[in-house]
Input
Amino acid sequence: MLNLLEAKNLIKKYRDLTAVDNLSFKIMEGEIFGLLGPNGAGKTSTIRMLLNIITPTSGTVSFDEIKEGEQIYNSVGYLPEDRGLYKKSKAIDVIKYFGTLKGLSKTDVKVKASEWLKLLKVENLADKRIEELSKGNKQKIQFISAVVHDPKILILDEPFSGFDPINQELITNIISKQREAGRVIIISTHLMNIAESLCTDILLINNGKEVLKGKLDEIKKRFGKNTYRVEFIGDISFIEDLPEIIDFKYGNGNAEISLADGTSPSSFLKKITNEIEVTHFTYLQPTLNNIFLETLAYKGNYKT
Output
């Protein structure tokens, strides 16, 4: 597996403010890398340094197997947080314009634009002016403009902004297919549930500094607690008094139970089945949102 993008010791200062403070990370092909953090954490400044839109105060960014200059530019697709579409232009013309800027011929960009418009279910809007489109459909056109040239690296800053749940799922599926095709994908978002469903790796930052980094599945194991979901028939309230229980929530035939360290889940399950009928018993991994909140609270630097 290739290491296609690497940042080393990135620092960005704006006068007395250090927006990005010594960040380092590597991203491999076929990975979805989540750059996560609260508002003002330094995510967008980091992305802009990766793209050479702004110059790091210190540190380096390198792209393996991509030569310097225009080839790097044409190998990256960027969806900015601050959208930049030409309001008076037709949607199809905007897509064609950005595609030709990235090196596509007029023939190729016409074909690819048509394919993407159909995939995102907005082919009927091709001849509409941008100013006539809803916020969600503008976002679709912006997304198409970022991917129409089939880039090796996708950098998506808040890609789900303006989308309802149905379109969030549509874009999520498209991003997953881009990963399967071997793309390097960076997503910056504050929507932890979507990041959790997509990302293979994460970097959580706050105040410009690294707070947590690594493979998402390994991080979830590290933060995992002895917590289980129980589906049952009967009255489960009796377990509140059991010495193995450290936390307990239940209702409508479902319960979430946290067991004391060292408690055997199989022994506990055997114990409670003497009193109730257990129809389902499963381990609960921590959510990314819980990890996000717990980590920043532990560090003592989360600002709401």
